[in-house]
Amino acid sequence: MADPRHNTRTAVIIAGPTAVGKSEAALAVCERYGGELVSADSMQVYRGLNIGTAKPTDAERARIPHHMIDIADPHEPFSVAEYRARAEVVIDDMFARKALPVICGGSGLYINSLLYDMDFSGTAGDADLREKYTRLAHDFGNSYIYDILQRRDPAGAEKLHANDRKKVIRALERIEKGGERAGLRDFERSFTAGSLIDPLLIVLTRDRADLYELIEQRTDRMIDAGLEQEVRGLTCGGMPEDGISLLGIGYKEMLAYIRGDCDLPEAIRLIKQNSRRYAKRQMTWFRRWENALFFEIAGKTPVQNVLPELFAVIDAEFPVK
RNA sequence: GGCGCCAUAGCCAAGUGGUAAGGCAGAGGUCUGCAAAACCUUUAUCCCCGGUCCGAGUCCGGGUGGCGCCU
Hints:
CATH class of the largest domain: Alpha Beta
Distance between the termini: 12 Å
Largest sheet: 6 strands, parallel
Order of helices and strands: EHEHEHEHHHHHEHHHHEH
Structural class: alpha/beta
Helix content: 40-55%
Number of domains: 2
Number of helices: 13
Number of strands: 6
Oligomer: single chain
Strand content: 5-15%
CATH topology of the largest domain: Rossmann fold
CATH architecture of the largest domain: 3-Layer(aba) Sandwich
C-alpha cells in the first residue's frame, strides 16, 4: 500500500510565540510521524548562539535530526533569501527520503518564505548601495530618499512609510540593481501557488499573561545557564559588536551590560521586556495566516497536554507511520 | 503645633486664565535579502468641595494626601 506521503509535499509547520513550547511539540510530532525537524528561526541559524536562542540541546538533536541550525557564521550576515534557498534543498531531500518535514520556529518571515512564492532572485543586498542611501537619509532626512522612491516607483512607495528607512532603501536597491518595482508585486494570502510545501499550519498559543511568565522564567534560566559568558566568548572572538547575530534578544542587552552601559538587573529586565514585545509581534504575524490552526495551551501547563489534540488533526492528514 | 512646597494618564513630566506638550510602559498593526530587525497607530479632561470669571489644570478659600523646615 502506498504511503500517502509519497506523492505529496505535505509538511507540518509548528509556529508560535517565543517560549510557548514549540520545540517540544515538534519533537513529539517528529517521533510519532517519522519526521525531521527544520528550524525556522532567524537566530538559531548562527553557530555559537546557543543559550540565548534556546537552541535545541545535543540530546534533543541526537533524538531527531535537526536542520537549518548552526548553518551560518555569526560574523557574517544571513538573510531570508539564503534561508529559503537552503531550506528548499533540505526539504526536497526529505521528500525524496520520505521523511516528514516538521518546520518549527517563530520567525514569521522565514516561514512565509517557504509558504509563498517570494522572489528573491537577482537583487541581492548591496552594501555600497545601502551605505550610499543610508548616508543620504542621514544627511538630508528620511523623506529625501523616500521622495526618490516615490518618483521611481510610486506604487512601491505607497506601501512603505517614509520613516521605514530600512525598507525604503531595500526598495531603491531593488530598482537600481534589478530594475524591478516593488509596487508591481504582491503575493496572495493563500499558500497554494509558489509554496515549497503543502503545509499543515499549526500555531501554538497561550494566554498572554501566562506566556509572559514563562518568558521571564526562561530568561532567568538563560542567565543561570551562563548567557553572560556566551556573549563574552562571542565578542572575544573578534566579533564585531554590531553584527546581526548580536542584535538578537538576550545578546544586545548582555552586550550593553558587559560594556558597562547598564547593570545586570537592568539588562535582565530589558531581555524580558524585549522578549515579551517580540512575542506580541509574533502573534500579530501569525494571526494573518488565514489557514492556520490555533491550539491554545492551557495556563502554564506543559505542551504535552495539547499533543493528543494535535495528533488527531495530523492523523486526519496522514496515518501514523 | 507653626511655616513652606507639591498634588496632571500605569510611571516620569510640560503647561501660570482660553478649552491638556513630550517621553517611558502598555495595547493594536505593518512586513518580499539585516526580521529576535525596522516601522506605523493609539491612551487623561488635570486629588476633593466651594468661589471669582464669558471662560480655570492654571486665580481665591476650605478639605484630604505627600514632602521639607521650624518649635
